[in-house]
Amino acid sequence: MKRCLALCLALLMLPASTLAENRVFYEIFPASFRDSDGDGCGDLNGITEMLDYIADLGAEGIWLMPICPSPTYHKYDVTDYKAIAPEYGTMEDFDRLAAETDARGIRLLVDLVLNHSSSLHPWFLEASRCLANGEESPYTDYYHFSQEAIPGWHTVPGAPGWYYEGGFTYEMPDLNLDNESLRQEILSICKFWIDHGVDGFRLDAVLHYYGEDIAQNVAFLTWLMEHLREMKPDIYVVGEAWKDAGTIAQYYPSGISSLFNFPFSGAEGEIVNAIRSKKGASFAKKAEKWYATVSANGGVDAPFLSNHDNARVAGTLMQKTANLKLAASMMLTLPGNPFIYYGEEIGMTGSGRDENKRLPMIWGENESICLPPANADQTASCQGSVREQLHDPASLLNHYKTLTALRKQYPAIANGTLTALETENNSVCAYRLEYSGETIFVMHNLGRKEATVAFSGSLVAALPCAEGEILLNDGMLTLPAQSTAILK
Ligand code: CA
Which residues contact 236 (CB under 8 A, 6 or more apart)? Predict the structure, then answer.
């Protein structure tokens, strides 16, 4: 009891900001981010070169899309879980990147693809060879093989009469996560990356671990999280459960740190819907309901606008600067760990086939240009290159920087409990965020007309996205069309 009291007192004496763990992350597709050696392929050294840019943007975490050897450009089918794809660099390059992120207080996450391996992974090749020769192999139980032609299963190369499960494609055989040796391999892979300095993982396709059996998927995640926390007590793990809110909520009891907030993201998600419909008040109510669900399960939300699988938000919102700024204002004033997808901060476009969503970052004229993925059939446009936007105070990039700085200055934004507030105007999204004795108010006017809201307090930040001035006079807040006020 005494020790507990002493610990509580020690925690109380810390400034609030050191207790704040939530932070902004930045998702990177390494092949398209920054090429350090002029071969046209982005690489790990390119990312290390740009860490000051990422820190300046206000991101305090990075999620690297897969970096392990793979036969595909996207690398979501791994052939060696403990190595770096040669086109991205070497293990030494990775260690330098990990050290340099650490020096800047940036947390580093790597993508962990556990649902399936590549069909060229040595485990699968050996299992297939043994089936073809009628030999026993420990690796046949790493996958799901059958002599029954189950619909959707694929024929095993060289082994007539044998089939295997590959839910995504034939190049991605599903792993049998019940196999005890495979589970030990998984823990060894996690330990390998933790020993190389990662702070956590992004888990690919958690919905598909056991078909779509939620109970079994959650049991596996529970097992994984327990072991990961033994290896690294402060590990951060964010899962991809690309589904509705009700389903995502069922994954939080696994103890996973975060799950991406798919219902708020994308072209049909709540943030874009609210901007299009101008229904601010109903967005605030939906946010309150969702954040209550996440905190009741001990999780931290991970909102985002679009990722490598979605049409980029800039195109969805017709490349209108005011809309893009408003989308950023909405995402970056929500609690939790928001994920900015590289290029989003400069308004890069990309839609249609996946390659178009992963186009080269636009740094500036003739600057470290990466070649686009081979099958891309679009060229990205943007609101101006990084170089151009850095020098324009009114740019989208500087709008992102203002928002990330506010999150650091007022920890209630990133860490607070969200309560929706009623105003007389349906276009206004208003909520309160409370954290560690601090209360912050966020008000977005999503409408195309000026809105006024009675408010007695003070204006902390005025973030107009279009024309007009945000004013607080005599207890009345004036919000021009498409603007955000942060108050206390
Ligand atoms: Ca390169």
Answer: 61, 107, 109, 199, 200, 257, 258
